Predict the 3D structure of the following.
Amino acid sequence: MSNSVPVQDTSGGRPWPWLNRGWLMALYPLLWMLTWIGIGDPQPQVFGIPLWYLRAGGILLLLIPLNGLVVRLCWPGRSDD
Amino acid sequence: MTETLVSLTTVAVYLLVLAGIGIWSFRHAGTDPVSYFLAGRGLQSWVLTLTMLATLLSAFTFIGIPADGYTHGLGIFLGVGVTDAFISVLFLLLGYRLWLAARQFQFITPSEFFGHRFNSPLLALLYSLSALLFTAPYISIQIIAGARTLSAVLGDGIPYWPLAVVMAVVILAYVWMGGSQAVVWTDVVQGIILVSGMVLAFVAISRQIPADGTVDLHAWLSVPGPTGRWNWQGLLGYQLLIFMAVPLFPQIFQRFYMAKNAQVFKNMMVVWPALIGLVFFPATLIGVWGRLSYPQLERADQIMPLMLQTLPTGISALVIVAVLAALMSTADSQLLTTSSLVTRDIVLRYLNRQLSPAQEQRWGRIVVLVIGLISFAIAIHPPGVIVDIATWSFQGSAMLFPVLVAGLYWRRTSRAGAVAGGLVSSGLTLGWLAGVLPSSWTGGWLPVIPAVVIGTVVLIGVSLCTPPLTAQVAAYGAVWEDGASPAATADTPTATFD
């Protein structure tokens, strides 16, 4: 898979020249790094749960729309799938 | 006594449901190897997702994660839970390509990919043997954890070993009878139960935590935790371990072969992070909160069963079933996959190449029984806490990660490079785990991390000095990039490699 290929909407929409597969896949390590922020401090807390822990859990939920976007825009197009 | 009766009845009903699925599968499943080991390669999205989830989540999740949280704090959520969620991207990067290859070349076992892609029986055997070596102890963990959970929760002097025997017998029975059909459909039931059970446990236990109850738990609520286990090196190393090991777990790897079509991978990739979050987010917190109720536990693995005892009878019974669902769903998948490895990669290849499909299935059933008994024997003297045994086992899976990635993406990989890289990373990992090599040489990392790095360097270096596998590259390129037709005729090259 070439990272420089512009992402195309495999459902038949227009190409997104400003967004290529590489930029989308780069969001994964970026989100992963965000889960490390603030892990050294138990404060502040919400209902007794540290904010960094809640943030990490929230980032897991962010993976859902990201994965959906990757599935829609980056999945290899094949006629026999 | 009433609580014990309710719990026992709930567990009994659950086990009867599993047995019923096993009987149904025995009557309706095909007798050929693809039916027995791969459920006919026809799993739909929700079925594959739930069986993948149930297979992955085990005693390590329900018992080990809370235990680690109890001892070392919340760091394991980052180490395992977050990483397991990010593994969803590997369904596209690894799983989908493996599925395409398996469909084209009719793979049944994971080692058949390694052997065929690199034209190397040695590499295939290396995967099979390492999978057997590192999976058997992991199966024993499930049996032990289940028996301990039942014993701790049921109490009233109910002995431990009969419970272990009951669990082992039920698992063996439906795997033996129904093969992958039974395993997959019991996994669907168990997947629903374990996610629901964990959420239920979290809601019920969190209501018991006083508003300022976590004031004294500051060390557990941050990283690196009270013991310093989750410092940056420990955390990063464990995340790398999980990321590399999970797709190479034989029971996960083989499930990539079972999808009906590409849409299955797409749907699974989207919903996966939510399912992982629903289980791991509460599991770690429950372990840490356990400090408030049981501050001086000698064996941290007891924390989840003990926390369940604080719940109302009906709720605790349901969560007990969820715990059993998690570990039984992993044990049955591991049993079946290791059975396929022994039957196809060792018996069929090295002892008797003339087995009919029915004979192959019969061998598969015999091997299921033998591996089950071996795992039970290992369970008699568990060598450590669940997380420690699992960490050891995971490293055995991760050591061939460079070879897998090279096989899927680097056309320049030669057979010599793949074999050399695989042998070096495996040898180093085993050497460190066995204590043959000085642990100081790992630089403080989990042994498989430097082993994989060095193995990767060797793979690349040797590949660049030796000729690539042009025929395999062309064949796989046709599958992955040009959309070759699925295997449908007798002329299609199958998983043989000489």
About this structure: Chain B touches chain A through 45 residues (CB under 8 Å).
